[in-house]
């Protein structure tokens, strides 16, 4: 088992504080959800973990006890932490196959592509299509498949359901649910979609204005409508 541990993480954009003293842990084989309203700091937390240069962060992030704090963003993937940003940045002029090929890392197994295609089934029939020809749901599936090509131990998924129809969200949920066991990886997923996160996660954290205000299991959260009302907007439930 490997462990990604975030301790006392705070972050600022210039002088604007966006995250204050957040701590959490993700182990391989499990999924941890981060819920919160728009602007709660979910994306900032993921960006801080990968040392995104847009912000200045303090606190500690370790993988199996080794700090990531001084690792440049482009090298974090080599430490086994893959970021899937919320805007699905695939290379639109390239085919899906090329997008996957580019992301392959030295960590990848010889049969990584076959394993990835087996785990995100939608992607196999898209291999020859170009990025700009894909729907939002197809792009999201390709973005996740691309991250898996680097054979990560941890996948940071930023609002994967954003802008997707309920049917596509359901398919995405089925694919993501299989990943921790198939690849022995840990997932940290941010969402506004309460149902999606409570269906997938082993533990949930709620962020509010940059601070973690509640942590518990999905069952505990479902039993607390007061928390849901206080910290999540109507559309998020
Ligand atoms: N590049 C940036 N420069 C300055 N402030 C930023 C920047 N990105 C985010 N912020 C601010 O940081 C705070 C946290 O934003 P963040 O994007 O992390 O929230 P979020 O929970 O991911 O919200 P959303 O669901 O809208 O993506 C907000 O107040 C936001 O306005």
UniProtKB/TrEMBL annotation:
GO BP annotations listed: L-amino acid transport
Keywords: Amino-acid transport, ATP-binding, Nucleotide-binding, Plasmid, Transport
Keyword Endoplasmic reticulum: no
Coiled coil: none
Entry protein name: Uncharacterized protein
Family: Belongs to the ABC transporter superfamily.
Cited InterPro entries: AAA+_ATPase (IPR003593), ABC_transporter-like_ATP-bd (IPR003439), ABC_transporter-like_CS (IPR017871), BCAA_Transport_ATP-bd_LivF (IPR052156), P-loop_NTPase (IPR027417)
Highest taxon of the lineage: Bacteria
One Gene Ontology MF term: ATP hydrolysis activity
A Pfam family: ABC_tran
């Amino acid at each position: 088992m490997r462990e990604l541990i975030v301790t006392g993480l705070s972050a600022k954009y210039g002088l604007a504080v966006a995250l204050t003293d957040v701590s959490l842990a993700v182990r391989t084989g499990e999924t941890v959800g981060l819920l919160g309203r728009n602007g709660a700091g979910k994306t900032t937390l993921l960006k801080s973990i990968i040392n995104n240069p847009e912000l200045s962060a303090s606190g500690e992030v370790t993988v199996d006890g080794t700090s990531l704090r001084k690792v440049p963003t482009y090298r974090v993937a080599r430490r086994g932490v893959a970021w899937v940003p919320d805007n699905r940045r695939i290379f639109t002029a390239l085919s899906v196959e090329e997008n996957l090929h580019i992301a392959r890392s030295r960590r990848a197994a010889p049969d990584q592509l076959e394993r990835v295609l087996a785990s995100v089934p939608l992607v196999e029939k898209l291999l020859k299509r170009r990025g700009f020809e894909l729907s939002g749901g197809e792009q999201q599936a390709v973005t996740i498949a691309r991250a898996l090509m680097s054979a990560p131990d941890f996948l940071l998924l930023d609002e994967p359901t954003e802008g997707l129809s309920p049917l596509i969200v359901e398919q995405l949920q089925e694919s993501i649910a299989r990943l921790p066991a198939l690849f022995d990886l840990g997932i940290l997923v941010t969402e506004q979609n309460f149902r999606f996160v409570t269906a997938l996660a082993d533990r949930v954290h709620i962020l509010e204005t940059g601070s973690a205000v509640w942590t518990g299991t999905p069952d505990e959260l479902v039993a607390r409508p007061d928390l849901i009302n206080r910290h999540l907007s109507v559309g998020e439930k």
